[in-house]
Design brief:
InterPro entries: MFS_trans_sf. This is MFS transporter. It comes from Candidatus Fonsibacter lacus. It is a single chain. With 347 residues, the chain is mainly alpha-helical. The chain is 79% helix and 0% strand. It has a single domain, classed as MFS general substrate transporter like domains (Growth Hormone, Chain: A), CATH 1.20.1250.20. The protein is built from 16 helices and no strands.
Length: 347
């Protein structure tokens, strides 16, 4: 088996393990709100620390890799998702197929984590048990798995100054990451709370959140298999998000709400990987561009739940989900302005 294939599989396992912990922790915040009887705004504030640390990690990863080498950085920081994408960007041209496989696998494992939370709630064991078991069992596996990666010394031609990306491009790339993450967080993070607010039992709401997450996984893996043109993917994504948001805003029962969430989830499913591919394809400084993109997505991941919670608490879910429609349009615009003039062939 080729070393590149071994590396990709090892990174895939690490990213999947990280996603179990990340997605289960994300699903726990609405449940924590219900347990403590606190507002969505206060519950959303718990995620801000994640946003701060992840943003710093995304900003510092590339300079640290260039200074100390990939092996030391990865084995000490275990920035699984970001460094997985960075590793892929070291190819001659970034592979959207591999990005979809990686993020699709992460979503699949993350959805399973939420499904286990739903089953634990239904059986009367609470929502904390699957998270604790996941942390105890999977963290050592992740630490052992990193030793399977065969680290290569990067080509000096690929090592760039962090100033290689123009300041005007910084803003566009970071904004693109922020918008993509707002859409993904906006659709999925408070889905469980939305379903419960529309009279779904808590366990059923967790199941609905898991189904939504499986929709994201299916969307990503299907795109990895079919490999459509990226321009068709972004058009589908924006259309599905808008359609799903309109359904959510137009109904009040949990079942049609779940249908709207699933449609919107299919729309947001390719956004993260598509964005990473878009900002890096055919650019020599792909690592720095992805770093800026990850800064945007990481910041939004931490802060978007808090700001969305303020909207939901004060104006309701209809206004909150309707507000995602302009972001979907902005996503299309930012996809256009952040790509190369001539598209390379993805592999």
């Amino acid at each position: 088996m080729k070393p590149a294939t071994n590396n990709f599989r090892a990174i895939l396992v690490m990213a999947a393990i990280g996603s179990y912990l990340l997605w289960s922790a994300g699903a726990a915040i609405p449940l924590l709100r219900l347990d403590l009887g606190i507002s969505r705004t206060l519950a959303g504030a718990h995620n801000i620390a994640v946003g701060i640390s992840a943003t710093l990690g995304a900003r510092l990863a590339v300079p640290l890799i260039n200074k100390f080498g990939r092996e030391l950085v990865m084995r000490t920081m275990l920035l699984t998702m970001f460094l997985g994408v960075i590793a892929l960007s070291r190819d001659a041209a970034p592979s959207m197929r591999r990005m979809m496989i990686q993020t699709g696998t992460q979503a699949l494992v993350g959805a399973t984590a939420i499904l286990l939370i739903s089953a634990s709630l239904h059986s009367g064991h609470g929502w904390r048990l699957p998270i604790i078991l996941g942390a105890v069992i999977l963290t050592p596996i992740s630490l052992l798995n990193i030793w399977r990666v065969k680290f290569l010394v990067p080509d000096p031609m690929l090592v760039h100054s962090t100033d290689a990306v123009k300041k005007s491009d910084h803003v566009k790339i970071i904004t693109y990451g922020v918008v993509n993450s707002i859409l993904e967080i906006g659709i999925g993070f408070w889905a469980l709370d939305l379903l419960v607010s529309r009279d779904a039992p808590v366990a059923l709401g967790a199941l609905g959140s898991a189904i939504l997450s499986y929709g994201i996984a299916v969307g990503r893996l299907s795109l990895a298999l079919l490999q459509p043109k990226s321009r068709n993917v972004i058009k589908f994504a924006v259309s599905a998000i808008i359609t799903g948001a309109l359904i959510i805003c137009g109904v009040g029962d949990p079942i049609p709400t779940m249908a709207g969430l699933t449609i919107a989830a299919l729309g947001v499913s390719p956004l993260f990987a598509l964005g990473a591919f878009r900002v890096s394809e055919s650019f020599a400084d792909a690592d720095n561009r992805i770093s800026r993109y990850m800064m945007g997505t990481a910041f939004s991941y931490g802060f978007a739940p808090f700001f969305l919670a303020i909207v939901f608490d004060n104006f309701g879910y209809v206004v909150g989900y309707a507000s995602l429609i302009p972001f979907a349009v902005a996503c299309l615009v930012l996809w256009k302005v952040n790509g190369p003039k001539e598209l390379p062939v993805s592999h």
